[in-house]
């Protein structure tokens, strides 16, 4: 299916209006890539309009796709992003990809739709960022690294070459993964950890070196 971002500027609906969303909104203003149309958040009980932007609750059922509109789930929590994506039942092609103008993404890297690359982040050659994932401020994704869907790589993380993060992984701020490390799905790596061995699914690990707790 053709990516909706190709061609003219699209209207954008952002889901979520917390701190993470405000950063996304700031990036949108800096890039002029999208025209912000609506913000959906469950803190709104009814629809309101302010400065030309419509604010409304998140729909509880499938959303009909529209050719002129892209969507972006601007929520930092992996599981909540995943839940909302399942709730809306939109195609991956309906979602925007947002890259800060000060991020560096190699031409041979792939960033899939729904994902966010923050300021000063680096995504190196032959790396793949899955759908609805976050590479946060000043994080480094080195060559040949594979990041699954609904992953959050927090600020100042370094993923050295050929790492593999499965879906729903969270890597805490300032952590370092040495080359050839794999992290299983739904696993959390605590902030400031140094990961020198692969970590299985559904666990929490932290420390230097990182150990399962």
UniProtKB/TrEMBL annotation:
Keywords tagged on the record: Repeat, Transferase
Residues annotated as the enzyme's active site: 143 (proton acceptor)
Organism: Brochothrix thermosphacta
Feature type site, description Increases basicity of active site His: 144
PROSITE patterns, per database record: HEXAPEP_TRANSFERASES
Binding-site list for substrate: 76
Name under which the protein is recorded: Acetyltransferase
Superkingdom to which the source organism belongs: Bacteria
Phosphoprotein is among the record's keywords: no
Sequence ranges assigned to domain PglD N-terminal in this UniProt record: 11-88
Residue stretches in coiled coil: none
């Amino acid at each position: 299916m053709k990516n909706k971002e190709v061609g003219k500027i699209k209207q954008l609906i952002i889901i979520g209006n917390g701190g993470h969303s405000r950063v996304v909104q700031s990036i949108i203003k800096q890039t002029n890539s999208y025209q912000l149309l609506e913000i959906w958040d469950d803190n709104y009980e009814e629809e309101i309009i302010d400065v030309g932007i419509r604010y409304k609750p998140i729909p509880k059922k499938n959303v009909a796709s529209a050719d002129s509109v892209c969507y972006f789930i601007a929520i930092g929590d992996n599981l909540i992003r995943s839940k909302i994506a399942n709730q809306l039942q939109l195609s991956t092609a309906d979602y925007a990809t947002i890259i800060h103008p000060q991020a560096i993404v190699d031409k041979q890297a792939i960033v899939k739709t729904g994902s966010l690359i923050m300021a000063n982040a680096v995504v190196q050659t032959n790396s793949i960022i899955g759908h609805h994932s976050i590479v946060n401020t000043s994080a480094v994704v080195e060559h040949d690294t594979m990041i699954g869907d609904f992953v959050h790589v927090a600020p100042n993380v370094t993923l050295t070459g050929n790492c593999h993060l499965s879906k729903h992984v969270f890597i805490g701020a300032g952590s370092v993964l040495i080359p050839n490390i794999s992290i299983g799905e739904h696993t959390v790596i605590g902030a400031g950890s140094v990961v020198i061995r692969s970590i299985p699914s559904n666990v929490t690990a932290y420390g230097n070196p990182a150990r399962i707790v």
